[in-house]
Amino acid sequence: MAMHARNTALLSFKVSALALAIATSTHTWAQQPEVVEVIGQAAQLEQALDDQRKSDAIRSVVHADAIGQLPDDNAAEALQRIPGLSVERDQGEGRFVRVRGLGSDLNAVTINGTLVPAPEDDRRAVAMDVLPSELIQSLSVVKTLTPDMDANSLGGTIEVESLSAFDHDGLFYSLNGEASHDDNTGKNSPKLSGAFSNRFSLGDGIDNVGVAAAISWQERKFGSDNVETGGAWDFDGEPRLEELEQRRYDITRERAGFGLNLDYRPSADSELYLRTLYSRFKDDEVRVGNVIEFADPQLPGEFGAAEAERSLKAREETQEVKSLVLGGKKRWGDWTLSGQAGYSQASEDSPGGIGGADFAGNDDFTNAGFSNTRTPRLSIDPGFFAAGNFSLDAVEWEEQITTDTERNLRIDLQHDFVWNGLPSQLKFGAKGSRRIKDNDLDIWVYEDFADLGFTDEQLNLGNVSTGRAHYGLGQFGPTISPTAVRHLISGLNRDDFFDDEESRINDFSIRENINAAYLMNTLDIDDLRLIAGLRYESTRLKAKGTGLNEGEFEATQRNNNYDHWLPGLHAIYQVSPTTQLRAAWTNTVVRPTFGQLFPGFVLDGDEAEFGNPDLKALESSNLDIGIEHFMGRAGTVSAFAFYKDIRHFVYEADLAGTGEYVDFDEAFTFVNGDKASVYGLELAYAQQFKWLPAPWNGLLLNANTTLTRSRAGIEQFDEDLGQIRKRDISLPGQSDVTGNLTLGWENRRMSLRLSANYKSDYLDEVGDVLDKRYDYQVDEQLFVDFSANYFITDQLQVFFEAQNLTDESYYVFTGRNDFNAQYEEYGPSYKLGLTLSHF
User: Fold this and answer.
1) 3-state secondary structure of 554
2) 145-156 pLDDT, tens per residue?
3) Which of the given ranges, 21-30, 532-541, 726-735, has the highest pLDDT on average?
4) Is the preceding peptide bond at 376 cis, omega within 30 degrees of 0?
5) Which of 195, 332, 591, 602 has its CA 20 to 30 A from that of 788?
6) Can you list the domains of the chain with their CATH numbers?
7) Is the pTM of the predicted complex or chain greater than 0.85?
């Protein structure tokens, strides 16, 4: 590799997804930037600009740097640096991605052009932390879909591209080893990864074959402390608490992934490629808990009698994502034919674990109370902390496997021509996809142990206790050994304890067939580019499951078929060589989640609970308009406004008292709302201060914020008033404010980055359609991270990262910020590692 290119790599600096954004655009369409690009490393800036020039959509991008690393360890956390994006966290780790404040189930994820299904049984959202970052070459978020793209996202489509040999000139390899430390548990964890690519000559061609591979393995041990009420507040009069629960989580997560990509480019006019990716996410979680139920709802500082139990959950889940994409492209003069076949499967396998082991208190406890309504601190009789005062009541054993498989085939034909002296491009194509979501859950409930011949000593918690739990939110008491509980039930005949009802009701199979076709034309009129088109999507859904009607099982099968015509128009106007205007009118459709389409039901007297396979798909008409101004190689300022007019959004409601459920006390299901709207403003600024005197010329600054508002109407029958009542809510998952601020500094060998990511509070779940006091809101969060990198030699780099420096917590409240539904804290974590690379 040339020394100039190597020095460029040495100057690469892990800054946020906007700190090194967009270089100066040119005035001709052949060279003009056509998208909003967001780049994470200076070493990949030029490639990012190439991606930018090829796109006609409003798009944000995060690239791996020259040594194959994303700016953050986790793909989800790398994406949160982009304007308008935030993440949902699981045990403190970024997992699901929200775009423009909209819930993650309203967005789509693709790997190398094929849809990624979801491993969870009830969701469409894809957990981005399932994908090891070392397998990823770039992450793109398309916020305005063109007609040639799948229309199945509202906020945006996240495109994951894995490493290709044509991303590097010649031989490339990178080896990475690191160790991390979790402050909450005090445990250390390893990680190893590597990537390789090279080009070879086949036949008369020169470097026409590319081979790229990447592998990653990580085992992380960490934990969290939790106290929650589940919203068990009585708000009639002065708010009083009915129950609370303390939880301690100890988790081991193992991530492993492998990718192999092959490219064949026999000529400048043709190419073939094979993209493969396999990722495994194994989660081994042990959760011990204390559940305290007050005899009467209590104010803070009051004391009274309470029932209590100690609980254990110990399960192992393995999520796998497999993706295989075979495609190619061929050009004949002004015509280009391209095609792609894709297969992807996501699965979640729980081979067997303790879904719950409950140890009930032998007697009620006295002097039970709490302080602090936000993070309740328990005060109770000292006998509560003695293992001998609890006996085993029941054990629930669960086995579950969920698979989500998607197969697709698409073909596109493109014709470049001149119309009335103006460059034009006509593109049309078709796509068929077949998706199957299957869930199989088996549950065994072991109880009535005394009748089975167990002694009081065998059932006593002291017999299976392993000391006291590590718990940072107060006194906790004895923990529970999963091994001892498993041993206790191992000699029983499991067939005698099978829960036929829960097992059969939760089994289902949902098939979703989508056929699509589109027509799109691009026209360049001097400094104006217009892209107009129409997409058609036909959806055929078949859901099979089992219902329970007054104790009798019934097979269910529901079909739901619908069609959508989706026009779109994009415009890009070049005001000057450094300034451009963008506008887009698009139409999209998002299918309900599989949990909402669930085909099972339970009818028990005057109570009912069921899914709704007849739900309509969410439809949205979207308008985006904005301006970008580029200020040199790494400077930009931009503003984008957006508006979304949404129909048929989905929410949970109680239909009791209406229609066929007029005589029911409860009838919970999912229904379509009428209309909703989302509007907002994205502002971004990035600058490299190269003109300042040394050492200040190494400073980099990035700031972006997104202001979003939404409004949706929901309704439910009010039995007291005898009529339908309505109220307005924000869409679940929508934060009014999200933002990033990053300050960086770099020289030839060292780089430093301090970054902050903020999102305001948002509605998580409607607790009671008729009473907003029982809604669940997630509190605002501010995460602060630091990273440092130093090149010991041109090929050897040492790096250090510190995450969650301010020990930010996760807090959900009920109605008002004062009243806890869930509080969880994790502590900071630290990482130290080495990277050896050749490129």
Assistant:
1) strand
2) 999 999 999 889
3) 532-541
4) no
5) 195
6) 3-838 (2.40.170.20)
7) yes
